[in-house]
Amino acid sequence: MSIDDYLDLYNYAGSLGDKQWQASLAASLSEKLAVPPASEEELALAALWERFDRINEELKTLFVGMRACSVQADRLQEQVWALKTERIIISQRIRSRHVRV
After folding, report:
1. HEC profile for the chain?
2. pLDDT digits (tens, 9 = 90+) for 25-83
3. Rounded Cα–Cα distance for residues 61 and 55 (Å)
């Protein structure tokens, strides 16, 4: 049953005055909505994905800067390579976690 179904039945039980049925439906809905806590592995993987996304954003900014100003291109190119290297390492860690899970 969907959450809407539980809520409809809960309201219907209330209109009938059946408090026991309402309590049963509320308990069932609570179980359905309960989310298990994230494991350390899931948290670590989420942190890796967040860093991966931040690196991509930094790379985009650097590429825009390189196009706009060729004077700083060498310095920006070094930053790009450092970020690309870090991104490769992070993607390898993400991949290894997916293989183990």
Report:
1. CCHHHHHHHHHHHHHHCCHHHHHHHHHHHHHHHCCCCCCHHHHHHHHHHHHHHHHHHHHHHHHHHHHHCHHHHHHHHHHHHHHHHHHHHHHHHHHHHHHHC
2. 999 888 888 877 788 888 899 999 999 999 999 998 888 887 777 667 778 888 888 99
3. 10
Q: Is 17 left (phi over 0), alpha (psi -120 to 50) or beta?
A: left
**Which positions ≥6 away from 21 have C-beta within 8 Å?**
9, 13
Contacts of 65 (CB under 8 A, 6+ apart): 72, 76
**Residue 79 to residue 60: CA distance in whole angstroms:** 12
